[in-house]
Design goal:
By secondary structure, the protein is α+β, with helices and mostly antiparallel strands. It folds into 2 domains: 299 residues, Phosphatase 2c, domain 1 (4-Layer Sandwich), CATH 3.60.40; 34 residues. The strands form 2 sheets. Strands 3-1-11-10-7-8-12 form a 7-stranded mixed sheet. Helix 1 runs antiparallel to helix 2. The radius of gyration is 23 Å and the shape is globular. It starts with a strand and ends with a helix. The relative contact order is 0.17.
Length: 336
């Protein structure tokens, strides 16, 4: 299958003082044909670590990624993972050179589209979405603590109220900080694409929009140019006028080629963002507690006592009840 892929990106600082997101498309020009072993690479990063640090980390990661991937040898999945590691090493090296940049980091999602389909690598909470009418699917893993807690709820390990009230829901379990990457999401096998698909890479600022809203915007503009699509998504974010709106970057890729799937004729279909099938390969640490990466507040772990209470809650309750029974028995014995 030969795909014609066109891409464009738009960004807003939101209510923040500066822009810490970054993006890149390779090859330059944002268009590619995939019929002769060629492809298109798209990258979005969300910087952290203060004004200067966040800007530097995100742009450095994107620049390193697009410089490393095309020059690398081997399978696409290996090249994606190698480019991610190179970006992480570049952050470590720059932070070691400049004291003011120590503690900087970023999320990153990188997607490669060739004639076989879509592959990706990601770390952090930046999103990789696929619009295939009438659905919006989140393809990559979410490495935020909130996503981890929600998974614990689905397994009936903690209560939903506990997950929702956790003050560190936005903290990240993994990010590019120059330290060893223990958690990353890699799709080494090609994810099949269809004519009419839209692939969207975005920083987490897009979460201001609900899944149905993203689906409606993309569906309504499914025949538009990538530039117009990206502008429509950013305009919808700004229209919310959220007082704490984060930086938001959207990079959209329009897939054209031989039609293998038809768009739904339902103009008002309900659309939700949901995870598709599990990634073909995902690196996860052995321990299940969220990792504490000491770089920025977004990556700060919960206090130790909170983790202990969460893990041993039932045992603590049991001990407490036993102590209450013992105290009651002793009081009764004294009164008798």
């Amino acid at each position: 299958m030969t795909w014609r892929v066109a891409g464009a990106a738009r960004a807003t600082t939101g209510k923040r003082a500066n822009q810490e997101d970054a993006f890149a498309i390779w090859p330059p020009g944002a268009q590619a044909a995939t019929g002769r072993g060629e492809g298109l690479l798209a990258v979005v990063a969300d910087g952290m670590g203060g004004h200067a640090g966040g800007e530097v980390a995100g742009q450095l990661a994107c620049d390193t990624f697009v410089a490393t991937f095309p020059a690398a040898e081997g399978a696409a999945g290996q090249r994606l993972e190698g480019a991610l590691e190179a970006s992480n090493n570049a952050i470590a090296a720059r932070a070691a050179e400049t004291e003011q940049l120590r503690g900087m980091g970023c999320t990153l999602v990188g997607a490669w589209i060739d004639r076989e389909g879509l592959r990706w690598v990601s770390v952090g909470d930046s999103l990789l979405l696929l619009f295939r009418a009438p659905d919006v699917l989140r393809l990559n893993a979410d490495h935020s603590l909130g996503a981890f807690l929600d998974s614990q709820v689905r397994q009936n390990l903690i209560a939903a109220s506990e997950a929702e009230s956790n003050p560190y829901r936005n903290a990240l379990r993994s990010a590019l900080t120059g330290k060893a990457l223990e958690i990353l999401d890699v799709r080494a096998d090609p994810y099949p694409l269809a004519a009419g698909d839209w692939v969207i890479l975005a920083s987490d600022g897009i979460a201001t929009l609900e899944g149905d809203e993203i689906g409606d915007i993309v569906y309504a503009g499914r025949d538009a140019s990538p530039e117009r699509m990206a502008e429509s998504l950013i305009a919808a974010v700004l229209a919310k006028d959220e007082p704490e709106q984060d930086n938001t970057t959207v990079l959209v890729l329009k897939i054209a080629g031989e039609a293998t799937a038809q768009a739904s004729s339902d103009e008002v279909a309900t659309r939700i963002v949901r995870h598709d099938i599990a990634p073909a390969a995902a690196h996860v640490p052995q321990r299940q507690e969220p990792d504490g990466v000491e770089t920025t507040q977004r990556i700060a772990p919960p206090p130790a006592y909170r983790a202990v209470l969460s893990r041993y809650r039932n045992a603590i309750l049991g001990i407490g009840m036993a102590l209450m029974f013992l105290i009651g028995w002793m009081v009764r014995a004294m009164l008798d």
